[in-house]
Specification:
single chain; alpha/beta; Rossmann fold; 2 domains; seven-stranded parallel sheet; six-stranded parallel sheet; 18 helices; Glycosyl transferase family 1 domain-containing protein
Length: about 425
């Protein structure tokens, strides 16, 4: 390639593009998938691209206040959604919501004429996607197919256990009925277990590209690492209060740890009432505090700097934004050696407990709390190692998206799906 041609190609690669993003939720308050979808939108705009979003109307009020300049088209609930919700027909409701999201995306794409259409959620490799004719489609990052550890199988929701038993035939049927993932030019995948689930649905390995599941905002990546000094008996659990996060194990560990140990629980969710009742029943009301949801930003980071470690014994974490956040801040981590944490952390970078059973994990958390509280040198070694690991993996959203842009170009070069 001549110098002029190389310059032209480079300029073409870096040129602003029209990108249509599709996700049911884009939100800071919803966390998880909603937060990732929002951050992808914001970062692509910051890189100079013309970004348009399709999302559900449930996030309209938040977006109108926080991001009034974003170009968003909203799917509205109709009578069918209301009745499906009232009758608790969740599978039919999910299917109808997905259909309406795709229908609006097709309508918007006809006028917007995007370079690529990127579905940033839902992230499950099982949920259906519909065919998008005449569009270059990227889906992901998909991440899922995460089972509980064998010793914790009885904690798995019944529906999830049943779903795993019928995963292969269900994926085969869904893959034939709903062609979206099979027809996509690229599937951005979070790991091997996700790729296997996609293959069961008829997707080809040639469609798949493995990548990190999520990035971290600049303000957090650039924050000074927390230095671990002195004795510190304060610990924190961070995230949505839902069953698979296993916050009850952390609370039970406080009862076994040094009496000076305290645990602040930052987050909210359906398990909160039961967890508060557990803490009261164990006589820990003055040692376990439920802080509620705290938005990301300086106030949260200042609060996190007060703790000795993040305790998060999640049993089915596909990735784990809270782990990434703790790593970039240098907040030591106590977790279960299973699923998401295994992809992010290694020996000497966290205290990773074997998932051998409830009693063993509770005892392991209590022992970890006691050692970390009294041994600042050990805590500092974990802080430094995890921080270095985060830098090596490249958690910054902009860096992650810079690695995704070639995937967009690959999808565009693949032609129009048919």
């Amino acid at each position: 390639m001549t110098g002029a041609a190389a310059t032209a190609a480079s300029a073409e690669e870096g040129a602003p593009r029209r990108i249509l993003l599709v996700a049911p939720n884009i939100s800071r308050r919803m966390g998880g998938e909603g937060l990732k979808a929002l951050q992808i939108h914001l970062e692509l705009r910051a890189l100079g691209h013309d970004v348009r979003q399709v999302a559900h109307a449930r996030v309209r009020e938040e977006m109108a206040v926080a991001y009034p300049d974003l170009a968003i088209d909203y799917v509205e609930d109709g009578p069918a959604q209301i009745w499906f919700h009232r009758l608790k027909l969740k599978p039919l409701l999910a299917l109808l919501n997905a259909w309406q999201l795709h229908a609006l995306a097709r309508s918007v794409a006809r006028d917007f004429r995007p370079w690529v259409v990127h579905f940033t959620s839902p992230i499950s490799p099982v949920l259906p996607y519909f065919h998008m004719p005449e569009q270059r489609v990227v889906i992901g990052p998909l991440n899922g197919n995460v089972a509980h550890p064998p010793a914790f199988k009885m904690r798995e929701p019944r529906g999830k256990r049943l779903g795993r038993l019928i995963l292969a035939p269900m994926q085969a049927v869904l893959g034939r009925l709903f062609r979206g993932k099979r027809d996509a030019l690229l599937l951005i995948s979070g790991g091997e277990r996700t790729m296997q689930a996609l293959e069961l649905g008829g997707c080809a390995r040639a469609q798949m590209v493995e990548t990190l599941d999520c990035g971290i905002p600049d303000a957090l990546v650039d924050h000074a690492r927390f230095v671990q000094q002195g004795v510190n008996h304060r610990f924190v659990q961070l995230g949505r209060l839902t069953g698979y996060k296993a916050c009850d194990l952390s609370i039970r560990a406080v009862a076994q740890a040094d009496p000076a140990t305290t645990l602040d629980i930052i987050g909210d969710g359906e398990e909160r009432d039961a967890l508060e009742a557990l803490a009261a029943r164990l006589g820990l009301a003055d040692r376990v505090r439920f802080v509620g949801w705290v938005p990301a930003g300086p106030n949260l980071y200042a609060r996190l700097s007060q703790y000795r470690a993040l305790v998060l014994p999640s049993l089915a974490e596909a990735n784990g934004i809270a782990f990434q956040e703790a790593m970039v801040l240098g907040l030591p981590i106590v977790c279960v050696d299973w699923a998401g944490p295994q992809q992010l952390l290694g020996p000497g970078e966290a205290i990773m407990l074997p998932p051998d059973g409830e009693a063993q994990v509770v005892a392991g958390i209590a022992a970890a709390m006691d050692r970390l509280a009294r041994d600042p040198a050990y805590a500092e070694s974990l802080s430094r190692a995890a921080h270095a690991r985060a830098a090596a993996l490249g958690f910054r959203w902009r860096d992650l998206l810079a690695r995704w842009l070639p995937l967009y170009r690959r999808a565009a070069a693949g032609g129009i799906s048919s």
